[in-house]
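Kindly review these tokens for lecture notes.

. . .
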Amino acid sequence: MTTRRAFHQEDTRQAGAAECGPAQAAPHSFEIVVLFTTVRETLSALQAAGRLAQGVATGIRLLVPQVVPYPLPLDEPPVPSGHLIREFQLVLEDSQLETRIDVRRCRDQWQTIHNALRPRSVLVIGGPRGWWPSKKYRIAARLRADGHQVIFSSPE
């Protein structure tokens, strides 16, 4: 299988992000979404998604909600999107699975994640299981309540 990476970037123009809908459908009828948390945790999640995708006609979408603080315009994030994309393209260079990098500039991370997913999506989130519920676990709980399947992958 050849490696294919695509890039999709969509800006949300308001905090509600009502106009920011799901990304264009991948050529596969099923995709695994990896939610960016930290670089180390996301790498672990990408590896887990790769194991899940083996033997299945599916692609992987790396969803990167890039929160832009209110003092800045949405088209001028504190870290340029191109920097994030290049960083992950280097990581994904040796991957044998089709992976799309989906960077979305936004004000509200939750709303952007919610709007970027198809119904009953499968998500992989990197991060160790801890005793204290973190932000990513609260997001996972909301995603599960919306009918999505969420899998956690601990960094090694």
Summary: The radius of gyration is 15 Å. The beta strands are 5-11, 31-35, 59-67, 99-106, 122-126, 149-153.
